User: What shape does this take?
Amino acid sequence: MTDRPSPRDVVRAACAEYGEDVVIDWCVAFLSGEISGEAAYGAELPKLVAITGSENPGGWKAPVDPVNYYWIRVWAARVLLYVWRDDVVDALMIAAGDPAWRVREHVARITAQRELGQLVDLLLPMLEHELPRVRAAAVRAVGAAGEFEHADAIRPLADDPAHTVRAAVEGALATLENRLDRPIR
Assistant: This one.
């Protein structure tokens, strides 16, 4: 067992110290690449430390291998599960096409949590991802934020080899029916 604070508590502490808008601005800058990976582990390290709660985010030796820079965007996206501002959607629209699947998975989670319908179409390619957890996250986002026509995109995954994906489809179709107040199946 660890005494590390939860991500939610880390975000709360960062917001208490720096202000919610400042923390959100940092995350947008990390997600958009305005703050590069090199800068995040250099001059901007205090921002990364604040949003991760770790003096050595990632635990890597210095200099950090650039292959690990995508984690900065993952951590920034994770923050947005706990704090929000509507103008963040523009950064998420860019992050929905991020080369790192973990970033896209977090965008799907945020889309589902915040019911961000404007992101659903950008997440549809994730329905074909090789990892079941990514497919399931995309399916849940469609259920939480999609429209009637999006049901056709997730229906084929009802036969997915992964139980978690099949369960996500069942839940997403039920959620769509309830949200849209019309039959989907």
